[in-house]
Amino acid sequence: MSPADPYGRTDKLDDALLDAVVTRLEARGKHPLFAGMLTEYLDVMQIDRARSVLDMGCGTGVASRALLRRAAFTGSVTGIDLSPYLAQVADRLAREEGFGGRVAFRAGDTRSLDLPSNGFDAVVAHTLVSHVDDPFAVIKEAARVVRPGGLVGIFDGDYASVTFDHPDAAEAKAADEAIINAMITSPRVMSDAPLAAFGRARPGRVALIRSRRDR
Question: What is the pTM of this model?
Fold first, then answer.
């Protein structure tokens, strides 16, 4: 895991840094563009049909609460995050919105989940895989815990394409790499796309993977 990426080591940050992470995640989640992308891929997943959803790397529960706000979604959500602190914040924010009875948050490592196989109708990994050092392990766990015929939705950025303007090409490249490495553990995960090993993958930032166990 990148020593510089704070989102990849939230279980090791102090409370002051975690409070900054909470502020950042909640602000980003409220941004209309970001919220719109989340709504769009949940729609594509036809997530309202799911009775049980796992939110991997849930952070403050932005994706979980967005799902629970959907009028047609009547199921339950389980949120897993590496940080016990963030899981507690997610629980508090969900309760403040009245969702306490339909969602449960807990600390855990998404690379090795303490959850039974085939336990969820759908799995969402929302801006998670770029922050782990073994994205393939996360994807394998998602495929394991989703039921046969269930759907996995992965949303992340292709940070390998991020560039910043500078008149000197060498300095620009160095700045690009320094900034990316300070924010992201696996910046090329979406362009490398290990997702295809698990079934159909949609191009771009959203990958929807149908469990092969229904075939």
Answer: 0.84
